[in-house]
Amino acid sequence: MPVKGYWTRRLGGAACVVAIVLVANFFLFRLMPGDPVATVLDPRFSPEAKAQLEALYGLDQPLGVQFLLYLRRMATFDFGLSFSTQRPVLDEILERLPNTLALLVPAYLLSVLLGTALGVIAARRRGQLAEKAVLAAGAVSFSFPSFFVQMVLLLLFAYAFPLFPLRGSLSIPPPEGTWAAAADRVWHLALPVLSLVLLGFGGWALTVRNLVVKVMGEDFMILARAKGIGERRLLWGHALRAALPPLLTLFLLSLPGVVSGAVLTETVFSLHGVGRFLLDSVLGQDYPAAGGAFYLLTLITVGSNLLADFLVQLADPRIKTGGEESR
Amino acid sequence: MGGFKRWLAGALGALVMAVPLALPAQGAGVDLERIRGPKVRDLYLVVVRDPDAAILALERGKLDILGDVTRPSDIRRLSKDPRFSLSMAENFHMAQVGFNLRKFPWNVKELRRAAAMAIPRDRLVRELFSGYSAPLTTFLPPVSPYCDKSAAAPGLDVEGARALLKKAGWTWNASGILVPPGSKTPLPPATILSPTAGVAPTTAELADRIAAALREIGIPVKAEPLDFAAMVQRIDERKFDLYLMAWQLGRDPDSLYSFYHSSMDVRGGYNQTGLKDAVMDGLLESLRYSPDEPAARKAAREVQKALADRLPIIPIYTRYSVAAVSREWKGAVATKASAADNSWSLLSMEPASGREKPLYWALGDEPRTLNPFTASTATDWQVLGLLYDTLLAVSPNDLSDLPWLARSWKVETVAKAGAPKTRLTFSLRGDVVWQDGKPFTAKDVKATLLFLKKHAIPRYFDSVRDIESVTVPDDRTVVVTMKNVSYWHLHSIGGLPLFPAALLDRIRDWRSWQPSRTPLPGKTGLTELYGTGPFVFRESKAGDFVRFSRNERFWLIPR
User: Fold this and answer.
1) Which residues of A touch B516 (CB under 8 A)?
2) pLDDT tens readout for residues B275-297
3) Where are the beta strands (DSSP E) in B380-508?
4) Which of B141, B254, B287, B341 could form a disulfide with B299 if both were Cys (CB 3.0 to 4.6 A apart)?
């Protein structure tokens, strides 16, 4: 029963968050300075032509009517037509999603794996050169601006030593055949993924190192060591396991930020992805596109949050969900 | 000491001005009669959004034509590279400072004139743009065929500005701030709106320097950088003192009507300065409703003279267009009015080696849509312009009208139902066919005009709103009668992209129509995205490229 009550409260809270974001999503865009028609700056475009454009976008309707239409669209996942492309927003997002996933999933997983491994090594070799190297590399990776690192990589490995392509997700003209096309796609994604790994592993390494160092000083670790458990098992089996709940939470809560943070990478490497679409939609005040994209991001965020709660319970059975049973 | 400073500034300026590029000489045109093409079989428009990546791609041989090279460092770097040929041309870009004439003191003509005399345009352009822009004092960019260079805002004369204000009764307080005639209160602080440095670094810096120049003569102004949308909103709401903004104007001067006619000081109108002047309105109406070219030219001159007297804005500078072309190609068309990244180049370029190969042309952004009814960005039209032809073309030499799908044309003023109206008669070429093999006729022109008018499509609304009737006496003649008199109707109608009548009949919803994704029934390899243009659309890989092949039926290919 306490578990059921906990999840009812969590799901109710999540629904409230989604509802608040839905409302804010509608009104915030309309409160932003300017509107999609006002930013058309062309002296050959008369006020009457602008009124036609307003009607085309549905902005001539009363705000209440626009809001109801918006709610219906969000509820049915039909986000309407993008102002700038006049294609269904969902189609626009789904068309870009494979590119974004192909870029971000390997980059994120590799960052986490590399960062975790280096973090554990640094915790194990405290005070030694290995720890200092990981801390320095982590700090550099964590603090460098992404566009700078990516431009340097582009300059080095696509221009000075042309090992990778300069732009895009495929060669022009594209190679014939499935395998050749797949290899071409991997070749094009290699440098963007490498850049994201270089930029992303540092934060993980520092976090994992700090958590593991903290856990290593706990009483149960001293007891385990006194029992004669080997150092390797102690580190990977006990310390990392104990540090897993916050790491899982961090992993899942970073996901939405990773999707929206792909903007710069997609721009520098000329990739056709969701991040750039999101930025263009906001800058162009494309209400349906921005509204749809933010709504999906909200669902990913809320979903990741709930999943994190669930997985943390699995990872650490001590965490109770009932009010009086929790400690 | 002052003399040394002036010498140093001049010497540094001369160094910076030593630009490796120059505009083509006046009159150095291209013989368009000799152009036959396209000669290239395969054309790729390659999306490269990042300007640094575009330069690298050009240098690595992944691009053959790169337009819109704007950063002086890039221009210098490419101009030193023997593998590329750079061309520089004048542009319809125009950056200007606008005053809010609805408010004191900006409604005082002497103050505006003095402000214009205080701004060191030459120095600003030299220092901020390294010479790849030109200081501007005219009310139309010099490239415009209608620009009257004698009707100009005053140039730099700081002492003259002070003398002018003094003569008009202005004084200065102890802090050097201007005090209006008959008052003891100095001018209140004011701001000049500009985009933020994050979005437009040089424009933000320019606003800062203009404010400093105005402070030199006692006008207490400082720059107020704003997010661009916020800046536009402030201007739309008329909540500003001054603003710095750049425009990309068109060939015709009737944009002056939008900027300065009192009827345009409304929501959605572009009379941002709020100029309301009956004489000016009369001149602008003469310009907009000129019956013929000579009358239009005369009216344009008079409007510019009136603007030079009233100075609702101060022109600051105009940017040049710069394009780079790989020397592996020959035949690019570059003139004083058009850099090499133009459609004429695509008709005449061919590999220098004589061996056939694809041509790669950079797209600075991704096309948002390939629906010609909703396409609005320059990138969209960089793509669509290769497919859709117009009745008239614009000469890259002098921007005059050239016959294109119309072999000849006539502009007349006729009296119909008591009121004078403009009647346009176009005689069409007989050797043009659509890319699906069907002949292009006057019925296609009529269908296009009526379709655009019937659906009130925003992009074309102003061009076709005044159409009264379209008649087709025969397959080669179209007569368009407008509701009123205006010479500019010729360019509005003559510049419209034309669509096949058979296709227009099939379009159920012009808004959601996706022609590039809809195969053309019975025509392998063709989609509904087809016209009479020099290239045939083949495929679009979103975010990567758009591929075209030569239209073997194009009328400029020798048979």
Assistant:
1) none
2) 999 999 999 999 999 999 999 99
3) 392-394, 401-403, 406-416, 419-428, 467-474, 477-482
4) B287
